[in-house]
Amino acid sequence: MMWRQPPAATLDLMRSRPRDEHPGPGVVSESAVDIEETPDLQGAYPRLAEAHLTTLAGLGRRRAVRSEEILFREGERDCDFFVILAGKVALIEGRGTLEERLIGVHGRGRFLGELGLLTDEGSFYTAITVQPGEVLAVPAERLKEIIARDSALGDLIVRAYLTRRAILIDLGAGLRIIGSRYSPDTRRVREFAARNRVPYRWLDLETDPAAETFVAQAGVAAGDTPIVIVHGRLLRNPGNAELAAAIGLPVPATSPAGSDLVVVGAGPAGLSAAVYGASEGLRVLVLDGTATGGQAGTTSRIENYLGFPAGISGAELAERAMLQARKFGAQFAVPAEAGSVRRDDGQYVVTLDDGTSVTAGAVVAASGARYRRLQVPRAHYFEQMSIYYAASQAEALMCRGDPVVIVGGGNSAGQAAVFLSRHASGVTMVVREPDLSEYMSRYLIDQVERIANVHIMLGTEIRELLGDRALEAVTVEDRRSGARRTLKARALFVFVGVSPCTGWLADLVDLDGHGFVRTGHDAPSAPGTGWQRSALETSQPGMFAVGDVRSGSAKRVAAAVGEGAMVIRLALDRVRQA
Ligand SMILES: Cc1cc2nc3c(=O)[nH]c(=O)nc-3n(C[C@H](O)[C@H](O)[C@H](O)COP(=O)(O)OP(=O)(O)OC[C@H]3O[C@@H](n4cnc5c(N)ncnc54)[C@H](O)[C@@H]3O)c2cc1C
What we know:
Layout: H1 8-15, H2 27-31, H3 50-57, E1 61-65, E2 70-72, E3 81-86, E4 89-93, E5 101-106, H4 116-119, E6 126-129, E7 133-138, H5 140-149, H6 151-171, E8 175-179, H7 184-195, E9 200-204, H8 209-217, E10 227-230, E11 233-236, H9 240-247, E12 258-264, H10 268-279, E13 284-287, H11 314-327, E14 331-333, E15 338-344, E16 347-352, E17 357-365, E18 369-371, H12 379-383, E19 387-388, H13 393-398, E20 403-407, H14 411-420, E21 426-430, H15 442-450, E22 454-457, E23 460-466, E24 473-478, E25 484-488, E26 491-494, E27 498-500, E28 543-545, H16 557-577
Parallel strand pairs: 8-9, 12-13, 12-17, 13-14, 17-28, 19-26, 20-21, 20-26, 21-22
Antiparallel strand pairs: 1-7, 2-6, 3-7, 4-5, 4-6, 8-10, 10-11, 15-16, 16-17, 18-27, 23-24, 24-25
Helix pairs in contact: 5-6, 10-11, 10-16, 14-15
């Protein structure tokens, strides 16, 4: 199976080669001596200054390299951090296979690696020298130490690594997911990869003959699709936990048995609790059923978070927070869905959906909220393939060039419209209210109204979803006149409010009328206990709630982060008593 359409960056590199052709296996290393460096258009491939080279030299080992020497292979974990001191290095995906493609070429002063080096995931490509030269090899653990100590160098590397991950996602490097667009499991696997910011390329069994050939050649039965190829391994319709383990995400089995504090949910509130808890010396275990970042991780740009005048993507905020929490020693388990929690001999026992359990003296419920589902006939059917509750880079890739409809008139719908307008052929917003200002901030209304391919339909509601195997159109009704119109739509984005994720808490803590967790003075006192409940503490001592899941919370990133920080002060006392 050949890549029929190499991305633009690859094509440019090919043009600079002696022969104007895509390299087959081994070709890159044979004749690429004069291969040009990948241009640094987005700040992903900076050259280190002499001062930085001197700092790093003290942590690693310089060594001469010959041509065609492999520095690390695709799938390899625990690679060193390499700085190129002389010569050039090519990064090749699928080396030695028919899918081989050049991802980039780097020369003197540039460094190798991407985010996975800091998060212990396997490499998505092989790094091979194309000229004799010299490299500096620094063990990954030493790199993490220097990132924590040297803010200028650390920030340069982290920023480059985050951008490189975004580039890999755009290129469709990394995993191959081969499955039908109509298969719920294909959608699940793609979403899991996307939410965890794992780069992948999807081959649709419905439209891509190469996908069909591949499945036949691999001897995979239709019932075993989707198949996922991870670092050369073929997985048949893997569950999320199996996929996470193959990629190298932190699965529960690698987490400690006992913790001081278990944080359920790794959205902004949980990540903040992890950073502050671990930095205070607590043994913190963070569980998330899906991915780090929570709702914030699904938005392309947060513009009102303090300190980021140009805005920051939710994915970047989440990655940075996770690296920071890990730096202080917090442990993560993803995917790890908390199914229930109980008290046992002064400790809390959180049982995961795979039946394993973790114990801690205190628990922080940071399980946030999930978007409400659309109440329209056939919504459940189309949810498998055409309805989305997030609008990030991943969803944009899935509906590139298509007409899309957004339901909702709040800030998240507005952000989605601004973002998707750059990827979709056209965006229609279906808004119940007669005026956008009811739920959307002024700055966003101004942006949305200025975009030529965003069409806003006020006072309207979705009535029907049309299509056979995938969504093709929606019927929209004017709430006042009752007039109906049919709009083409290949994807429907739904932002119609949220419901709290409290199922795992069952009857243990007190909830308000909408199902959010009561804390502080709001939570009823246990009669006769004389126990003084602190703010953010639920009706159970040592069980706290922060962020969107908490009754009365502000439902904002900054507020969730603030509560995550504040809860640690309060939890410290309970942990010491436990
Ligand atoms: C599209 C969109 C755009 C937004 N834009 C902005 C913005 O620009 N500015 C702003 O301030 N706010 C914005 N928000 C709101 C903001 O993202 C939320 O207020 C914030 O994410 C809440 O953080 P949280 O940690 O409390 O909960 P969440 O972000 O909801 O995270 C909760 C986490 O808990 C996990 N979880 C749930 N149940 C379980 C369980 N049983 N076991 C394990 N894990 C579990 C979930 O998988 C999730 O990762 C936006 C929200 C959305 C959806």
